[in-house]
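Session log. Operator J.P. requested a structure for one protein chain; no other inputs attached. Running the standard single-chain path with token output.
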Amino acid sequence: MIMVLLYVSGHSSSGKLLLGVLMVLALIAGIVLLYWQWRSGRELESELAQLGKIQKRNIEYEFVIQAMRLRTWHIDPVARTAVVDNDFQEKSLFGMQMNTIIPLDDMYRDIFEQDAPRVMRSLENICQGAISDYHETYRVVIPHTDKLYWEESYATIAKRDADGKPLSIVGTSMRIDDRKQMEEALVKARNRAEESDRLKSAFLANISHEIRTPLNAIVGFTGILNEIPEGDEHQMLMGLIQENSQKLLRIVDDVVNISKFEAGKDELSMSIFDLNMVLREQCDKYAPRLASGVKLSTDFAETQLSISSDRTRVADVIDHLLSNAVKFTQSGSIVVGFNEPVANRIRIWVRDTGKGIAPEHLDRIFERFFKVDEFIPGAGLGLSICRTMAYSLGGSVTCESKLGEGSTFWLDIPIQ
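Structure written below.
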């Protein structure tokens, strides 16, 4: 065709004009083609850039849900099916596998039975369009075990039909065991703080009463002592003053001991001493304070036993235990003794036939400021101090008691 045109154009003026027109058209066509190719290249570059951004965004999205250990899932409320898109948790949601379509009802099967009805209602509400957003915290049963873990889920409606009915629901789930443990720890800490504050308030009210009672007796009896001539009444008043002085001294000593332990100034003073002698000294101290008809005796496994420990601290523990036995025993007997040492440890005990302790109080009697009977004098510190002292010696204090039959307290400590 081109050869024909060249031939024609070479033999006529009209042919030359046609050739010129064709060359212009060819040039325009070339320019248009080049422009189309340039524009197509720009569009391709833009599409590639957009694809790169999408891929980057997908990578960032996947990185975020992986870092947060999230699980993403979709629900088709019309078909009533669910599918997991991504899962970076240790266990698939309710047994669901990645990219596997399951019936919606199967999502509930591993939820703890006490939480399942609530979660089911929330999911049904969002599937029906009654709510736009879903948020639930619940426990999940680990299959074939009796263990549970905590999970939290969020969901929202991603697509609706023309009538506003949900067509697609997207959601995420994550394990929150650590957060729940932290919440429980904070609740326990708050409860302990509130209990401590309550006990301290009760202690201040109680200690003020406990101090005022013997102090009033001391001040009152001392004031009239000079007006009473020597004789039985005078001696009785002297005895009451001495008795109340001892009560006041015990309260002050208890408060001082508590303060020392809390301040960390409770250093041990180890020495070798005769245990029999220490126990007899405590028995002699309390013998005059026994109620009428109560017998105080000893039962030692050895006639003489030298041990290495803190003499003062051992004596203080036995002093507190004997004081309680004398206070709560109005008839029968009180026995102080120790067993044969075993593996460089010894068990010292105080047994009485007093009023005993109710089972529900046995776990609390060593708590600070706790009193079984509010009408019995005392600040509620003695047994708590005994336990703290026993711990400082590397031992423990335990109790066995029956209400109405009596109690036995054991001090178990190492003897080097």
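Operator note: Residues 4-9 have pLDDT under 50 and may be disordered.
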